[in-house]
Amino acid sequence: MILKKHLKKIVKATLVGTAFAALASTANADVTLRGASMFDDKHTFTKTMVKFNELVNKYYTGDVEFDLRLNGEFGVEKDYVTFLNQGVAIDYTILAPSNMARFAPSIPLMDMPFLFRDLDHWNAVLSSNILAPLEKELSDKADIVIIGYAGGGTRNLISRNKISNLDELSGHKMRVMGAPIQAQVFNAIGAAPSAIAYNEVYNAIQTGVVSGLENEAASIQNLKFYEVAPHVTKTAHTITVRPIVFSGKSFRKLPSELQDAIMKAGKEAGAYGRELESREDGIKLQQMADAGQIQVSEFANREKLLTMVKPVQDKFAASIGATELLSAIRSK
Prior knowledge:
By secondary structure, this protein is α/β, with parallel strands linked by helices. The chain has twelve helices and twelve strands. It has helices spanning 44-59, 77-86, 119-126, 132-142, 166-169, 180-188, 201-206, 217-223, 248-252, 256-290, 302-319, 323-331; strands spanning 2-5, 14-16, 19-21, 31-36, 64-69, 92-94, 144-159, 173-176, 192-195, 212-215, 231-247, 295-298. The strands form four sheets. Strands 6, 7, 10, 11 and 12 form a five-stranded mixed beta sheet that branches. Strands 1-5-4 form a three-stranded mixed beta sheet, with helices on one face. Strands 2-3 form a two-stranded antiparallel ribbon. The chain starts with a strand and ends with a helix.
């Protein structure tokens, strides 16, 4: 699936069906930028990366070819992190912060459950430079550059059986992402979390290894988790932060003008992705409910969850030297 850029403001890549068709030109590109998405062309991550490609086309006068591979052709996000760190296979993608924890232990703070009060708070933080210390750590320790912030999905509990209160949540075996803070938070509210590879979650629920997971509507729909876990409990524990990232090794090889275009395009594509995903999240949840694929429940006394997790959040922030950063996020 190839996007080719040859003449600024004349040639634009367009999304057609499941392929990215390039407008033809006989000129050869000076640079090829390789992207990867775990999802198809309808997913907001993929749409955001297509927007990023278009914006680079807009801001850079040279010739660039974009090679964006979909549907997990290059594996899962943990694989992408390794590729980006090594500067091989791919140059850019969108990642969950927790999947970068093995290189930059502080980065999962971005993804910590119950971090944001609401969408306005989340957007205010991502539109500011509050997260700059985490960006620096990721660059220094993983050689991965954050060029923008997408995300905006509201993550809820997804389970085989209905969960609507603390009693029903107690002992619930659920998949969480690999960063320790994820397991710590869900342990604090009485669940029994396990870190399982994303591409193994469906089978793990089907075979009873776990009874559910936590995720946003787009992924439930795209990966059909509702087939094995049809109950969605509106805990709204996370509003996702999904950095658009670029390999530092790849980035440094590029002309300075292209580097500038990438940074500008990344910021704008992130804003586009945040608006798109936050808007589509509720729509997708309702679509699945209307189709009878999921049953949606509220969580009784959700406010108590916020109180239960605060000591865990504080302890984690202190352990990574981010107490002031956490305070800045909470007060934004």
